[in-house]
Amino acid sequence: MTRNPTHSINSKTRSAVVRKADFPVGDVRRYLEPGPIVLVSSRHRRKTNIMTMG
Question: Which domain of life does the UniProt lineage start with (predicted)?
Fold first, then answer.
């Protein structure tokens, strides 16, 4: 089993701790959603929701 150095688990609470790292802003969009994005909104019994599809 290999361990990812950016993640660790607290054995008492079993919660994961993630260490953040800098990432080039120019590359972010390519990893988030590489293509067209459609926003879909809905409403049912006074509860509204919005989600992305793409």
Answer: Bacteria
Query: What CA–CA distance (Å, rounded) separates 43 from 49?
Result: 6
pTM above 0.70, yes or no: no
The pLDDT profile of the chain, 54 residues, written as one tens digit per residue, is 455 555 555 556 667 788 888 888 887 777 776 778 889 999 999 999 999 887
Distances from the Cα of 32 to the Cαs of 7, 8, 25, 40, 42, in angstroms? 21, 24, 11, 17, 23
Q: Residue 36 has what DSSP assignment?
A: -
